[in-house]
Design a protein that fits this description.
Order of helices and strands of chain B: HHHHHHHHHHHH
Distance between the termini of chain B: 40 Å
CATH class of chain B: Mainly Alpha
Helix content of chain B: over 70%
Strand content of chain A: 5-15%
Number of strands of chain B: 0
Largest sheet of chain B: none
Oligomer: heterodimer
Structural class of chain B: mainly alpha
Shape of chain A: globular
CATH architecture of chain B: Orthogonal Bundle
CATH architecture of the largest domain in chain A: 3-Layer(aba) Sandwich
Strand content of chain B: under 5%
Order of helices and strands of chain A: HEHEHEHHEHHEHHHHEHEEHHHEHH
CATH superfamily of chain B: MetI-like
CATH topology of the largest domain in chain A: D-Maltodextrin-Binding Protein, domain 2
CATH topology of chain B: MetI-like fold
Number of domains of chain A: 2
CATH class of the largest domain in chain A: Alpha Beta
Number of domains of chain B: 1
Distance between the termini of chain A: 70 Å
Chain lengths: ~425, ~290
């Protein structure tokens, strides 16, 4: 008897292994008479800061479409999770993307992403932004908000020291000298985190390398060397000159630590992206925060790089396609876009929608005047940004421009071959 | 009749192994085989199609400077980690095994770091390196301590090592204490009567009995040294300028960031062979030294 029991126990244990493997079938779109849609979609959302914001938007969506259930899903390290899910075929119905990144273009080429060129509501997109996003004559993502990098500054400290907002690079240097003379840290630099160091280098690349945007392609083919590039030389020198006015041991300060130093009023400036504002807000600075574009050699050359911060795409194979399209065109409505930027503070990608945060007034002005440049890393070979940030951080470690261009030359040749 | 009964019994035993066998095959053997296949393709982790390229990825990794740096880092780190953890935890275990006051309290104090999550440990040590140590270094006028030790490529490895040791000695210490308690006391008694010095007692009795545990601790720390990933992510993320990039970090970045998926699998297979070789040698050597029952 005992043996019979043990035999069946073993069989039972084996069979239970497979219980979890069966998959329940999702109820797909049911079109009832009229325009009422019904079903459930997964919304894979990559931005931690925007979860609450989207919860509110989904609640509003459900007032109009009570039968469509939108499940927001936000996981850590979301970009890598999304890549893995795509390559295994488990693509979310709707997901947020960074649509200008070169990795996203690979996803479009591999037909993971729905073409939404003819979707209801895409005409609401700011035409400039729409042009930027159009890839091979098609639109794959609905942009909602933009980001840009600039210099956060402590308005109160600028006033006390009688410093005007620098319009040229020389003015920036003399402003920093003045702050240093007053015994304060002119600029806080989070050099320990290579991602943000790489971003700074990327934006300066956009400012100084206007005519050499294809430099890496040429280096890869062996037609050019990075050592010959004047723009790159300038970029490296500016990076190093800023470090002369930064805090001591900048490589020891991380992103979060830099924000807390800036928000506590110990440093006058902080070169960072608009995305840092919600975190600065959280630290409750006792002074007013503003942001100005990184100044060029002349006032006219002070341009800013524009990237799309939040954009929404859908899976290509048409499963739950109607529901996804309904949700995305809902997000394209001006009043919903307004709702998003009101909470987020970033500039909107939808026509005639304005963010009312006054921290970014100067940046909004630059965007309106068209003083912008495209982000260089978006046109690099997919995956190159990872190598780039390492090389730029090494520039700050070694403080040697020649070693920097030499190392970059090797890395580019290896990656672009 | 008897014969049949035994078979029936055996069958049940075999069936009991099936769940584990299936799990092991599905989640270990099968991925290893597909991994070997993928390492010979040019798949980038995303594309729907890929080509067979033979051993190209394996040749590539030997031309990759960052792979060489990562190997160097791993070897240096593993040696320091193995020596550090085993020496410190053995010393701690011997101390905590003597008749001192508040023995249990000290044991729990030394075990405490092991229960903290890695995120917490990373935050704690990042702040210590950022604020506390430079403050002390400045007051005492010690040059290399007056800035964050994670900010220089030369000292960052020690920053990671110290954090790893702080958390890593706890479990080996417990294992050593358990092993020390299992050594028969009469052996020491006999040794004392024969006039053996305390070093001789340590050399010929304690170490001999500790060899199985030493073996396990050695292997576990060696493995964690060669696979080091989590502490680096929590503290430096491979920086500054790639100075603390271990093979684990390099593989992760290649696979998920740089779109070189197949190359990263080739790297991991290469590491697999190194670890396997070291483990075999280590087992062979230590088996010879063990006390036989």
């Amino acid at each position: 008897m005992k043996k019979v029991i043990s035999f069946f126990t073993a069989m039972f244990m084996t069979s239970t292994l497979f219980l979890g493997c069966g998959s329940a079938k999702d109820t797909d779109v049911k079109k009832t008479d009229g325009k009422k849609l019904e079903g459930k979609i997964e919304f894979f959302q990559q931005k931690k800061e925007a979860v609450k914001n989207f919860d509110a938007i989904i609640a509003k969506f459900n007032e109009e479409y009570p039968n469509i259930k939108v499940e927001q899903n936000c996981v850590p390290d979301a970009g890598k999770v999304l890549t893995t899910r795509m390559s295994t075929g488990d693509i979310p119905d709707v997901f947020t993307v960074y649509p200008l990144a070169s990795e996203f273009k690979v996803q479009c080429d591999q037909k993971f992403v729905m073409d939404i060129s003819n979707l209801n509501g895409v005409d609401n997109i700011n035409p400039e932004i729409k042009k930027m996003l159009t890839y091979k004559d098609k639109l794959y993502a609905l942009p909602i908000s933009l980001n840009t990098m600039g210099i956060f500054y402590n308005k109160q400290m600028f006033k006390e020291l009688n410093i005007e907002i620098p319009k040229t690079y020389d003015e920036l240097i003399s402003a920093m000298k003045k702050i240093k003379a007053a015994g304060k840290t002119p600029i806080i630099l989070p050099d320990k985190d290579s991602w943000t160091v790489g971003q700074c280098g990327d934006r300066l690349f956009g400012m100084y390398m206007n005519e050499e945007m294809d430099l890496f392609d040429k280096v890869g083919k062996g037609e050019k060397s990075t050592a010959d590039s004047k723009g790159l030389d300038k970029l490296a020198k500016v990076m190093l000159e800023l470090r002369e006015y930064g805090q001591a041991d900048s490589l020891g300060t991380g992103y979060d630590q830099a924000i807390s130093v800036f928000a506590s009023g110990k440093a006058a400036m902080f070169y960072q992206g608009t995305w840092a504002l919600p975190i600065i807000d959280k630290a409750k600075p006792s002074f007013e925060v503003g942001m100005f574009p990184f100044p060029g050699d002349t006032d006219k050359e002070s341009k800013i790089g524009i990237n799309v911060d939040c954009a929404v795409s859908a899976r290509a194979d048409g499963k739950n396609g109607e529901l996804a399209k309904t949700f995305i065109s809902f997000l394209a409505r001006p009043e919903i876009a307004q709702m998003y930027v009101k909470a987020d503070g970033s500039p909107s990608a939808i026509k005639d929608v304005k963010s009312d945060r006054k921290e970014f007034e100067a940046m909004q002005k630059s965007i309106a005047e068209g003083n912008t440049y495209p982000i260089p890393s978006n046109n690099w070979k997919p995956g190159f940004s990872g190598e780039w940030k390492k090389v730029v951080q090494n520039l700050i470690v070694k403080k040697d421009v020649k070693a920097f261009t030499k190392e970059l030359d090797q890395v580019v040749k290896n990656f672009y071959k | 009749m008897k014969h049949k009964k035994i078979n029936y019994n055996e069958l049940a035993f075999y069936l009991f192994t099936i769940p584990a066998l299936i799990l092991y095959t599905c989640f270990f053997i099968f991925p290893v085989i597909t991994g070997i296949y993928y390492s010979m393709t040019d798949w980038n982790g995303m594309n729907r199609t890929y080509n067979f390229v033979g051993l190209k990825n394996f040749i590539n990794i030997f031309h990759d400077m960052s792979f060489k740096n990562a190997i160097n880092f791993n070897i240096k780190y593993s040696i320091m980690l193995v020596l550090g953890i085993n020496a410190i935890s053995l010393a701690l275990a011997m101390l905590l095994n003597t008749k001192i006051k508040c023995k249990t309290l000290f044991r729990s104090i030394y075990f405490f770091p092991a229960v903290l999550s890695l995120i917490t440990v990373g935050l704690i040590w990042n702040e210590i390196y950022y604020q506390v140590l430079p403050f002390i270094g400045n007051k005492l006028g010690i040059g290399f301590l007056s800035k964050n030790i994670l900010s220089s490529g030369k000292t960052a490895i020690y920053g990671i090592l110290i954090t790893n040791l702080w958390q890593g000695v706890a479990v080996p210490t417990i294992l050593f204490i358990a092993a020390l308690q299992s050594i028969p006391a009469d052996l020491y008694e006999a040794a004392t009567l024969d006039g053996a010095s305390s070093f001789q007692q340590f050399r010929y009795i304690t170490i001999r009995f500790l060899i199985p545990i030493l073996n396990i601790n050695f292997l576990l720390t060696l493995k964690s040294g060669l696979m080091i990933f989590d502490y680096i992510v929590a503290l430096t993320d491979g920086g500054p300028g790639g100075a603390t990039e271990s093979i684990g970090i390099l593989m992760y970045n290649h696979a998920f960031g740089d779109m070189k998926f197949s190359q990263s699998i080739a790297e991991s297979i290469f590491i697999f062979f190194i670890i396997a070789a070291v483990s075999i040698i280590q087992f062979k050597v230590q088996n010879k030294m063990e006390v036989s029952d």
